[in-house]
Structures are given as C-alpha cells and as structure tokens.
Amino acid sequence: MATEVISPLVADPVTGPVRSVREVVPDDLWNKQVGLLMRDHPYDSVMAARVLGQGYAYLLTAMRHRGESLGLAPSTLVDIGVHTIILDTAAYAELCDRFNDGHFLHHVPKVGFKLDGSVMRTAQRVADDGWEVDLPLWADAAECGPCHPGNDSH
C-alpha cells in the first residue's frame, strides 16, 4: 500500500509555503502594532495579528519586487495592516532599510478602486514569495485594489 507524503514545502497554490512575518518583526514592535490595531479598529488580538501579518507580508513582497511594475495591490483589510505599519514611520524606515536596500517604499493610495483582479494576483505573489497568506483577508476586495502600482510605490 502506497502512502502519499506531502512535503511542507509543497503548498497549496494560494496559501503557499509557510514563512511567518514573525520571523522578521521584533516582538516589541509586533505587540505595539497589534495594540494600535485594537485601539483603532474593532479587532480582538487574533484579528489584529492576522491583519498586521498580512500587511507585513504584502509590504515585504512589494519591497522584494520593487521596480518590476507588477501592479501589486492589497485588499481593503490588508491595507489596514499596511497603514498601521507605515504610520509608525521610524519602524517603517528601518523595515525599508532592512528589506528594500535603504529605499523608502512610498504608499500612494488612489481614490478609485481598480477592478482588475490585482488583489488576488497579489495574494498569489505573496504566497509565491513564501509568505503565509490568510486568504479570507484578501477576499474582501478580490476584484480591486486601492493602491497605485509603481516602481517605487505600492
């Protein structure tokens, strides 16, 4: 009788291999930003951590692919995590130094949403880059994204 063995590196095409942003975000910063999300949104600590984690996964992916004009876009919920991260400007500048070769990755929001499927393509790119993807947080805006795609912005 044959038994199928599934390697942890073989992943679902959407959720991807599991690499957690907690590996790169210091505990004190993580706890502070989870607290900010709980303060500013109706989230418990579990939801705040989910949103924050996806915000980091998105930003780290955008930084890795800076200049590639991929048109990456977060969902509405993931964008809340992104805002929490980038508004802590000193910590965000350090993140850019560490993961974006010292280049500041600007956030350039658009008023209108793009209805081009870029959010789900972005979730796939995040998974392809090895980050954990919490798919329900991406599905809230599966057809559109609020951010300007550019070489030096997201």
Please provide a written account of the structure.
The protein has 154 residues and is mostly helical. It has one domain. The chain contains 6 helices and 2 strands. It has a two-stranded antiparallel ribbon with strand order 1-2. Helix 1 (27-40) packs across helix 2 (45-64) and helix 2 (45-64) packs across helix 3. The longest helix has 20 residues, at 45-64. The model is unreliable at 1-11 (pLDDT under 50).
Topology, please?
Layout (H helix, E strand, L loop, with lengths): L26 H14 L4 H20 L11 H12 L1 H11 L9 E6 L3 H11 L6 H4 L6 E3 L7
| Mean pLDDT across every amino acid position | 83
Shape: globular
The helix content, as a percent range, equals: 40-55%
Helix count from the secondary structure assignment:
6
Q: How many strand elements?
A: 2
H/E series: HHHHEHHE
The biggest sheet amounts to: 2 strands, antiparallel
| Spatial strand order of the main sheet | 1-2
End-to-end separation: 51 Å
Question: Which quaternary structure do these chains form?
Answer: single chain
| Low-pLDDT segments | 1-11
Taken together, the total number of domains comes to 1
Query: Roughly how many Å is the radius of gyration?
Result: 16 Å
Structural class assignment: mainly alpha
Instruction: State which percent range the strand residues make up.
Output: 5-15%
